[in-house]
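Appendix C. Worked example: Rap guanine nucleotide exchange factor like 1
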Amino acid sequence: DGAMDGVQRKKAVLSVAFRYLDTYRELLQEEGERNNSFPKVTPVVIATVLQVKTLPCNLQELSLVHLCDEEKETRKKQVRPLFRHFRRIDACLQPREAFRGSDEIFCRVYTPDHSYVTIRSRLSCRVGEILALVREKLQYSEDQPVQPGNLILVAVTSAGEKAVFRPSDEAVFTTLGVNTHLFACEPSELDSLLPLPEEIHWSPGDSKLHDMSAEEVANQLVAFDWELFSCVHEVEFMCYVFHGEQARWRPLNLELVLQRCSEVQHWVATEILQCQSLPKRIQLLRKFIKISALCKQQQDLLSFLAVVLGLDNPAVNRLRLTWEGLPGKFKKQFQQFESIADPSRNHKSYRDLITSLRPPLIPFTPLLLKVFFKTLHVNIFFQHKVAEMVRTIRRYRSSQLAMDTETSPSHLQTKAYVRQLQVIDNQNLLFEMSCKLEPKDT
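Step 2, the predicted output written as structure tokens:
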């Protein structure tokens, strides 16, 4: 009987392994090609599902990763511009597809004088490869009569903060913030790097939101969030929770969801603080509260809480005259939304809300990761918690979210606007704008 139990156990392990490979063959194939090894996360997944501490056989010795020729056929390559760094309407209107490290993209890399070269690169390529492409372009550039020397790759934020990448760093493109750009320079030029002029200066003006209905904007936010969330493999969540930034391959699509959350928060603050007219600013405040309510109604908690947190930005929160002009019912509604964002008792209000909802739904992804980080660090039965995380994510996406398929000109205009938000993410600049709108003594 013991021998039979062992056989059944091995069969169960193999069954799970094949199912796992069938689901994630593209990720595994790409990882194997790059590192010539079986992903370390696989034994954890299988042990998680079987709820055992050790595996009865060495999966790394199995020939499971030898996929048939038909499965090895790669999907049709399509070079895409780097996310929000290229403002292309035709690109942003296309449905979002999951990114793989082997996907090729166009990217701009700037020089200290703010000229740039456009390179074509794999999403996952190393910094050393990026610099080699930049160096080759600069050698043939008329704007660069001097041969480039020892180059380094630097990320420069709109606030002027700099991060120097190591030559061995991979997939740095998805680590860039909303208004962060790549610069290539010699080490001696590092201190002279400045943000792009358009990231430093701002011009007041009326928001395009005034001409859009809250319903249409909310529908587009929900549709885009669902596309982004649907692109994230469960393996990316697991890799992020277990390894974070030390992962062998970056959770590309998950990082884009997290960036979107930050982007929406800064969008709310940007639109309100660029509005010079107090009555129009109050209208925007009302519209954003209505948009957050509609996102909550459609069970998009990502944009719902991102809008709420954007309205809670200190630069917006201090606008006393603007908030005093808000009708009482909107103030009361926003207070209710703030209570859901309250982090006390381990975010109990949010957890109660999401427990009460039935799928499909879009969770507030930063908080989803935070909860699992915390439980994994305090719970020795981490394999059970990983299984719980996978089940939770699958439950959220167990059915398709209803989408608005309207194709009117105004619909497409709103769709393009929502997918290419123009935001200011420099908190010092936002606070400066706020003080100009409503000085402290008003």
